[in-house]
TrEMBL record:
Alphabetical UniProt keywords: Aminotransferase, DNA-binding, Pyridoxal phosphate, Transcription, Transcription regulation, Transferase
InterPro entries: Aminotransferase_I/II_large, HTH_trans_reg/aminotransferase, PyrdxlP-dep_Trfase, PyrdxlP-dep_Trfase_major, PyrdxlP-dep_Trfase_small, Tscrpt_reg_HTH_GntR, WH-like_DNA-bd_sf, WH_DNA-bd_sf
SMART domains registered for this protein in UniProt: HTH_GNTR (SM00345)
Cofactor field: pyridoxal 5'-phosphate
Family affiliation: In the C-terminal section; belongs to the class-I pyridoxal-phosphate-dependent aminotransferase family.
Annotated source species: Companilactobacillus nuruki
HTH gntR-type domain sequence ranges: 20-88
Molecular function terms, GO-annotated: DNA binding; DNA-binding transcription factor activity; pyridoxal phosphate binding; transaminase activity
Protein name in the entry: GntR family transcriptional regulator
Amino acid sequence: MMKRIDPIQINWKPAKNKVIPVYKQIIQYVCDRVASGEWVIGARLPSQRTMAKLFNVNRSTISIAIDELTSYGIISGKSGAGTQIVSNTWALMLPTKPSWKKLISSGYFQENNYRLQQINQLEFEPNIARLGTGELDLRLFPQKMWTEVLQKMSTEITSWGYAEPLGILELREAIVEHMRQFGINVSTENILVTSGALQALQLIASCMLKEGSTVFTEAPTYLKSLQMFQSAGLKLNGITMDHDGLEYWKIKNQIKNSESSILYTIPTNQNPTGITMSDIRRKELMDFCIKNRLPIIEDGAYQELCFDNDQFKPLKSIDDNGMVMYLGSASKTLAPGLRIGWVIASKPVIQRLGDAKMQMDYGASSLSQLVFAEFLKSGKYSSYLVDLKKTLKKRRDNALECLTKYFSQLATWNKPIGGFYIWLTFNESIEVDDIFERALKKKILLNPGDIYDFKHNRSIRISFAYLECDEFKESIKKLALLLMDK
Ligand SMILES: Cc1ncc(COP(=O)(O)O)c(C=O)c1O
């Protein structure tokens, strides 16, 4: 996909009373914009006449400046609006500010996919219907509970120091208790509190996997939408799924060296497909990983959102051999703004990750840790979750009804047992990129499947968690009409 180039904006004028000639000031101004990365290669300058107006100088002054910039090789094209920035290297040799453009692309951490950058911005546009977003409807915020918890905190907290390296003990104790209902029986030394599950992934990528290692994962997967593993020089290898989850046997021929391979999986309410791995597949997968000495990162971000019951126990609950590192998060159930997640693993792993975390941020926010501990200990979290699951289930059922009504002829989809997502695959060779742009004009924001996949696809990730039933229906109807009006 071509990256859009923002049009050049000029809101500066040369100072006519300076010793430096005006045309030189203009040259310097252009060089500064190019060297700082504000004006990128390919950006077009306004016509000479417009520039003369904007700079409040004669056309002849502009002409001299343009000639000189052309001779440096910074711009090309003589006149009209055809003059473009063609190089930023010469500009660096001129006395100017540091090249932020060059510096910001020098680090090892890769940029987000362009479409994701765009979505991250568009999510904050007013009145936009976020049809694929990975966040709970903000209107489901349990205001009364928050008030109670925060009021209690305000009288109980007497100081704000740094927290212990693995996270505040009170929270780790509450997490230990909380995880028992999912069949995970561990002690506080097996838990590291992180700033969201994302940080746990970051810690694992940077502490435990060496460059060139292979990370097997579902295809499509949330991990593909992040650049952190790729930035660490890790190779992602996408393995297809069926209705029961990851087709783990396909990994077999691809494991070159189990010492430098790991599996990342979201077995429950997978992001982006909504698929939940069956119990039989979980057992088989564990056996396969034990046999092949393949460690597992189990992402349980949506584990607590099974609508009917919790029969799908985490892999960690059947992990007798210590193969699994489990990631939990408060983001999908309660509040992503808390930035609280946790890792459950063997003590040496927790110690290593905890040590790295101390070097990174010296602990997750103490306020967030204490707030989440209070939610867990008071029983408020559990009772809130019962209501939340009821609401989400209603929204899922409404979403499936809407899809049957408006998309039966256009697409296929799955029925998730929980979580946020439905994976919608268009029948015909519909270009999702094209639909994205057209939907955007109707104020509907989509999450194209390509963001999460290893190959081009015809799918989008639908979320029923963000919009109310009526809003969802309206957006789905608009989208169907738009598709039929190809
Ligand atoms: C599967 C999965 N893991 C982790 C995260 C990130 O969670 P957190 O907000 O706890 O960093 C997300 C968020 O979309 C997710 O979908």
